[in-house]
Amino acid sequence: MSGSTFGNIFKITTWGESHGKALGVVIDGCPSGLALDEADIQQYLNRRKPGQTSISTPRKEDDQVEILSGVFDGKTTGTPISLLVPNTSQKSSDYSEIASYYRPGHADFTFDSKYGFRDYRGGGRSSGRETIGRVAAGAIAMKLLKEMGITVTAYTRSIGPVSADLSAFDPSAITSTASCMPDRAADEKAVAYLKECMMNKDSAGGVIECRIDGLPAGIGDPVFEKLDANLSKAVMSIGAVKAVEIGDGVAVSTANGSTNNDAFAMCNGQIHKKTNHSGGILGGISDGSQIILRAHIKPTPSIFSTQETVNKNMENIEIAIKGRHDPVIVPRAVVVVEAMTALTVLDGCLLNMSSRLDYLINFYKK
Amino acid sequence: MSGSTFGNIFKITTWGESHGKALGVVIDGCPSGLALDEADIQQYLNRRKPGQTSISTPRKEDDQVEILSGVFDGKTTGTPISLLVPNTSQKSSDYSEIASYYRPGHADFTFDSKYGFRDYRGGGRSSGRETIGRVAAGAIAMKLLKEMGITVTAYTRSIGPVSADLSAFDPSAITSTASCMPDRAADEKAVAYLKECMMNKDSAGGVIECRIDGLPAGIGDPVFEKLDANLSKAVMSIGAVKAVEIGDGVAVSTANGSTNNDAFAMCNGQIHKKTNHSGGILGGISDGSQIILRAHIKPTPSIFSTQETVNKNMENIEIAIKGRHDPVIVPRAVVVVEAMTALTVLDGCLLNMSSRLDYLINFYKK
Amino acid sequence: MSGSTFGNIFKITTWGESHGKALGVVIDGCPSGLALDEADIQQYLNRRKPGQTSISTPRKEDDQVEILSGVFDGKTTGTPISLLVPNTSQKSSDYSEIASYYRPGHADFTFDSKYGFRDYRGGGRSSGRETIGRVAAGAIAMKLLKEMGITVTAYTRSIGPVSADLSAFDPSAITSTASCMPDRAADEKAVAYLKECMMNKDSAGGVIECRIDGLPAGIGDPVFEKLDANLSKAVMSIGAVKAVEIGDGVAVSTANGSTNNDAFAMCNGQIHKKTNHSGGILGGISDGSQIILRAHIKPTPSIFSTQETVNKNMENIEIAIKGRHDPVIVPRAVVVVEAMTALTVLDGCLLNMSSRLDYLINFYKK
Amino acid sequence: MSGSTFGNIFKITTWGESHGKALGVVIDGCPSGLALDEADIQQYLNRRKPGQTSISTPRKEDDQVEILSGVFDGKTTGTPISLLVPNTSQKSSDYSEIASYYRPGHADFTFDSKYGFRDYRGGGRSSGRETIGRVAAGAIAMKLLKEMGITVTAYTRSIGPVSADLSAFDPSAITSTASCMPDRAADEKAVAYLKECMMNKDSAGGVIECRIDGLPAGIGDPVFEKLDANLSKAVMSIGAVKAVEIGDGVAVSTANGSTNNDAFAMCNGQIHKKTNHSGGILGGISDGSQIILRAHIKPTPSIFSTQETVNKNMENIEIAIKGRHDPVIVPRAVVVVEAMTALTVLDGCLLNMSSRLDYLINFYKK
Asked: Are B216 and B286 within 8 A, CB to CB?
């Protein structure tokens, strides 16, 4: 179990390395009858492509997805959907040097420790390119959720010291700015900050926030399979994430019960919450309000300034990483957070369909 | 799948409600040959008992564990270990009132939404008593890890505004202070703060930190089953946790690569890291240094001041919760975080044993 | 993973040894809202009790089940149902001798090989008593299936050379004859044959057949999770089963396509099959006709005649097993086959509820 | 969960339809360090190719495998191995007619019942071509097992009324005869019988037997994950299998304990069994002797004689299937049984490595 499968009913298995022949994903358990073509998926892959703005690497990754199975006459058949993205632009020669040493902040050392050796070309399986499969599968999950009235929206909340002002939330900015912030003014400041980082041969971190709207109350399970537990795993499994928050997150540790509790109240004949400190989840189960989570992303570990490390001969050395690297991971990871969130929520929705006897009777005795 | 099973090889299934006949856990996949008796487990259960300090409810929970299967002649047999803790002190009459309304910050509403009704006595399955099974199973995981040279230590890092000074780490204080802080001076301040909260009919949150020592490099898997992803799920699945951090955690989002990267260096003929911002995990795999994580715990939602909510007739009402409730969840959750961490790490260690061909050959061809 | 969990959504975990304190099962994923009490379960446990007829051991096993969790106000809550059956009549002294040698046909040797030692009292975990948890969980599955219009019926098809005549199927005979055959005349012959076996200090095998009625077409999944594959695993996991057949079973290997194919034809406006050689499953998915399977059960390995074997000092010895043992396993295993079949089919039905987009839309957009 | 994943640690996920762009498999959890290239896999795929003998369809399937990931410098890296086989020779026009009706003995009707429609080209996902992924993954399992000293050998035991004489077992005949029998004389008779079937526009069934040699005692788990239960599921999940036997199989139901029990005896200082009625498994765990299983395969359902069925307008019709179809499935399924057996046994071996405390200590404290 090298751990490349995610989900219970809507189950995805990703494969591929940065510089192998291709990367891909198999989606098993997609319900039949969903209209699906390559364009549905490609639009999400395009959002994670590099080389599109002044703060991303000029490296070209022309990631074109192909559907190999599971779709017939334009609809999903219920059988596994195999998606493939060829690796066309990767040059292994760029990476031959890093075979000999361990880059700080990367998984070179831990892969060698675990497996005895590693595919050192561009990070191999621990490359950011591994997320291609996640995003492709997430696109299908997003389309299914939309059919069910549920939407998932991720965006950059902050980069380094620069935070978006969410009071003037501009959804169009998410996919059109370099930072993926929903705030064009903050985006400009973030870009300026990142250019400064690049001048200093340094990199920056940031925060991605994600919202789920339209999710009914009742999704998630009470103990180990809490919706927030599964969201945390999903998001923490993305390469550079070092912290996950639900709702008020870290702020709850200094809050008091009187302010942290969300009062229930009637509104238009429905039970709702007057505030949403909980981030839409109580006891691991969705409460019908908006789900909110945040992922804290570490600075790109590949920096151009000199660093100390150790080589495979176990000698102390100094290195200066070359090549083309983004000064920040955040903008390209926004769609990855969105994908992992969508996959988790969809799986929870599918599992929930058999949670009550009356659901079974309605289904089987109609 | 109501989600009461955790783990892949060392697999636990918990059961039981706050006011049912008993609570328990079945541990399946425990290796044979471990010396085990009730006392090994009871010492951990005693750490989560209430009624022991001035800041915990005087409610008595006399949680005595019984081993029902899986141990023969004082050793684990390799077959399922069933552990049972009878519910002896729960009085259902205390809780009859809450059947009619939804307590803010609790799972009453979401359970009704999911299942159509709920066991309203003391929170039922979403009660803190659900963690008894986790702690009991965690005790066995802790004992196995110790045999392998691995230790797990959780403690209170902060309560409300009061933080422990970790520069003078006092391990003995963890199990002997009311706050479970490894710092007796901070403990006194925390207790004073909590008494103030109680006087205000309010409650407080806090932070639990957990360290894993002795874990070799190579544990965890690269993609969805990253060690940090599984730790996040494990810890976030504990009732009141709203954020999880690994290593520097939320601080990475404002850090730069030049300071956040941990340089590798030779030390006594071994590769080690000069700093540990990563918290002992790179690319989802342990790097041989100390693993560090933090859980942010929300304030106890049961507070004695008046709160607005809704009853089952969908009327707005005001309530004042009665009964006996801790002003803070943190100290009693310390051993739960420790248990969930131990279970996760142990499972990762067992999975890792078949990760290389030479391991297979050593095992099967000796 | 010692393998004591079965099922995907409706998931059971059994525990307990022949001579431990108790045996039991945890059922996780039972839908909420099912009326359930101990009597619902006890009636199935009573069917596997020994000491009830002239051909079963006079050993007393007074297996009384207790519900410890997951039921409130007489209905399942959706949370884990823990069932416990105390071991009251087991005397360890009866079994002390077998600690020193390996009984032919039993798992003594393989347990020692795997785990290094074993609980030798009455077979420990490999005792027939292990099936108590299966039968108890199966009782709940049977009750759920009944609510959905699906019934499962197992019976003895043959014992040694004596076969039931199914053309005069008598359902009442299944639970009232010693052999559990649906044919009282065959039962008399089977009892006579078994008495002969007992006189010869020998034992007999037989065949259990099981039918599922009312199952709609569409249950099961096309590749590895075929309904017949899961039924085979379920039934083959019962101690003494050495072969499993679906529909015509072993007879297909000498059949021709022209006779083995089942023609489709319209009947009362419905598509049905004119014959049922397939046993109700095509391509791993139920076809709407009756499901039929058969389990071939080996003769009781504990026989009273002298046998050759080896002791723990690795010496060849001769043994004569003492104690109280049934001359045939079949009648007491009928309810176990029924339980495993019911668990498998129910789980397939629950998984099937999310197999089409229109099911999702009906559920979430109503 | 459309059920396309198999295994716990060595986990495979297959995808692809008969007439899609390609078929393939992702193997997750393959240990690192195994030398692997396409030729290792191709030799197994070649064994299931059609058009090679007088009794197989002249249809050409030029199934060339490509390794897309998981192998670097000629060795497995421990990350997912993605294998792809393009569909080059499939012509959809051949199959357009069958879109309108349900072929007897095929899964057309059950796919429509489950998913609402189906990919009708050549059987889609229920085509025999689905086994390409199984055989490709099985090739890797076979190579790993060989490194551990374990071999798996399947062969045709019988076709229709013609059985191989196993007393003169000729291994070279398995891969060089049309029937895959280890007996050239029986092969000739089987071919003659099949030609007769073809003349009659009919088809035949048969039996495949499989042996595992070199497996140590102790593999498999005692309850639901018995080795024989998992082998049964593995083999029954192959399209046309209708019965599975372990050891003496169906014969046990008419045997007596005195003849069915295998006596233990010392032999060269080792405990062994004097006979092997059990087929190498006791209590679900391997006993160190040869594992033997048999799969009963139904006759090819596609026959050229006229058959009754129903079309999608729910009218009774008569059909005569055209195209190219083998008169028997057995010879091409031999390598599939071998693959599924190898996958099951390997997974059991990997799980077994963490079954004892001393194994853990040896591994982690050396």
From this structure: yes
